[in-house]
């Protein structure tokens, strides 16, 4: 799975807002500076998150951005979907819509299982957990396995 820069920046911005005092409006330039995100790009991302119901915005000197929901009620998957759409898709189609023939007949089942595995993490990690580091137990188990910290090179599995 590839995470786009836009999705990465969006999750980082949402985490920054989750760490802010509840109800406080945070300026986009403060988020951009703290997260080392280009301000113009961040403004576009925040607009998408606003349209997706993830953040609220207010203009003026006392304005800025804040989460539209409590950090415990927003999961990383919410942010990624608002930015990039479905967590797993193939050429713009939902994985369950794919049809394959011959030797690849059961490939769709692999894609559906992959989506379920992705959901198993991204739909369970709340912004509150992301900010505090208090991850769900099954995510902690994944993180405890040293193999999961190693990127495998392209090619055959050893």
UniProtKB/TrEMBL annotation:
One of its GO terms (molecular function) is DNA binding. It comes from the Bacteria. InterPro entries: TR_Rrf2-type_CS, Tscrpt_reg_Rrf2, WH-like_DNA-bd_sf, WH_DNA-bd_sf. Keywords: DNA-binding. The keyword DNA-binding applies. GO terms for cellular component: cytosol. NCBIfam families: rrf2_super (TIGR00738). This is Rrf2 family protein. It comes from Motilibacter peucedani.
């Amino acid at each position: 799975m590839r995470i786009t820069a836009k999705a990465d920046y969006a999750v980082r911005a949402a985490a920054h807002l989750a760490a802010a005092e509840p109800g406080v409006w945070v300026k986009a330039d403060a988020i951009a500076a703290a997260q080392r995100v280009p301000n113009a790009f961040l403004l576009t991302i925040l607009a998408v998150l606003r349209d997706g119901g993830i953040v609220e915005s207010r203009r003026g000197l006392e304005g800025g951005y804040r989460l539209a929901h409590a950090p415990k009620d927003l999961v990383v998957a919410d942010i990624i979907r608002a930015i990039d759409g479905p967590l797993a898709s193939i050429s713009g189609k939902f994985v369950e819509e794919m049809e394959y023939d011959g030797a690849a007949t059961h490939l769709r089942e692999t894609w559906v299982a992959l989506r379920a595995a992705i959901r198993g993490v991204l739909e369970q990690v709340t912004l509150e957990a992301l900010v505090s580091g208090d991850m769900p137990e099954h995510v902690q188990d994944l993180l405890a396995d040293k193999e999961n910290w190693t990127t495998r090179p392209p090619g055959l599995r050893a």
